[in-house]
Every structure is written in structure tokens, then in C-alpha cells.
Amino acid sequence: MIRVLLVDDDPLVRSALALMLGGQSDIDVVGEAPNGQVGVALVGELDPDVVLMDIRMPVMDGLEATQVLHQQPSPPAVVVLTTFDADDHVVRAVAAGADGFLLKDTPPSDIVHAIRTVAAGDAMLSPSATRSIVSRLRSSTSSDRSTAAADRLTVLTERELEVAVCVGRGLSNSEIASELYLSVPTVKSHVSRLLTKLDGTNRVQVAMIVHDAGLV
């Protein structure tokens, strides 16, 4: 069972999400919070697997709350849900440690899929969010940035680098396992080491480093 916490300042949005997710046999909505501060506190109490996080909220916004959560030893996966499809929001959410980024008008089936995806350890970005990331990378690419990214990758073993490139291509753990003839638990271990060695909090950050280095 995937334990989900809803963090949004709009009670109608929370109710709609709770109603939608309540019909899923493998998802349990364990709590709701009206802002990031309450959300962070409830994570400590309820131990959710996934947090659906709004961006614009009073007291503490979703980006700050996501950053706080990902500084914890065993943080939940965070999927940012927002009405704003701005490049800056996407990039800041990824930098804060979000594992997924979706618009609130995303079809319910896609939101459910995103929850299952990040709970399994993969990243989930909407197509528009992916375009924003790629656009930002292209506009800011320079020889210095490429060199810096390549230098960061030198700490990886050959196998870890292969996994990193697969992550950069957007492959899921199961897809990486199939391509590299590894078990899914082994892939998860490699991804965990990648995050540690590259000082990252999510797969998208690894993908950005690989893109910057020109490997995909």
C-alpha cells in the first residue's frame, strides 16, 4: 500500500484528490495539510511514501517544504502539483528535490501513475515540464558547464556511469535493468550511490548532469 499525504492550501483540491485516490486499491491517503509547514510536521507523524505538494501556499510554500523534507534521512518522494507551468517553477522544484512535477489539470490516471512511479523510485515529469528542463539546459549550456559536469562524473565507476546515462535518457529502473542485464534491486542500489556521489536528491538532477556532460 502506497501511503500518500496531500499538501495544498485549497480544501477543494485536497478533497478532489482524496476522492480520486480513495478509489485506488493500492493507495491510502493518510493525511492532509493546508501548507508546507504543517505538511513537514505530518510527514514526521504519518511517514507517507509520497507527498503531493502544491507550490504556492501560505506560511511555507511547496518548494521550501520539499527542500526541508529532502534534508531528512529517509524523505518521502515528492510530486509537485501546480497550476503554473513556468520554467522557473520546474527547475526550482527539481533543485529542491522534487521527484515529480505535474500540472493540476493532469488527467487523474496520470496522477495515479505518477504516484506509483515515484513510489517505485523513479522520477515523473509531465511532458511540458521535461521540455522546460531541456530548454533551460540548452539555453545555459557552456563549455565551462560541460567541463564541470564531466568532472563530477569522474567519481563514478564504469557501471555507475552506464546507469547514470540510462537515467539521463529517462529510463525507469525496470528499463535500466533490462538494458544492462541487472536486477531491479541492483539498479536501485546503483541509483542510490549515484545520488550520494553526485550530491543529488533525485534522478532528474542526475539526468541534468549527464545532459550537461554531453553524454545523452
Quick recap of the structure?
With 216 residues, the protein is α/β, with parallel strands linked by helices. The chain contains 11 helices and 6 strands.
Q: Can you walk through the features of this model?
A:
The chain is of the alpha/beta class and 216 residues long. The protein is built from eleven helices and six strands. The protein has helices at 11-22, 36-46, 62-69, 87-96, 108-119, 127-140, 143-153, 158-168, 173-180, 184-197, 203-212, and strands at residues 2-7, 27-33, 50-53, 77-82, 100-103, 124-125. Helix 3 (62-69) links the parallel strand 3 and strand 4 (77-82). The longest helix has 14 residues, at 127-140. It starts with a strand and ends with a helix. The model has no long low-confidence stretch (mean pLDDT 84).
Q: Which oligomeric state applies?
A: single chain
Class of secondary structure makeup: alpha/beta
Mean pLDDT: 84
The largest sheet is: 6 strands, parallel
How would you summarize the topology of this molecule?
Blueprint: E1 2-7, H1 11-22, E2 27-33, H2 36-46, E3 50-53, H3 62-69, E4 77-82, H4 87-96, E5 100-103, H5 108-119, E6 124-125, H6 127-140, H7 143-153, H8 158-168, H9 173-180, H10 184-197, H11 203-212
Parallel strand pairs: 1-2, 1-3, 3-4, 4-5, 5-6
Features:
single chain, 6 strands, six-stranded parallel β-sheet, alpha/beta
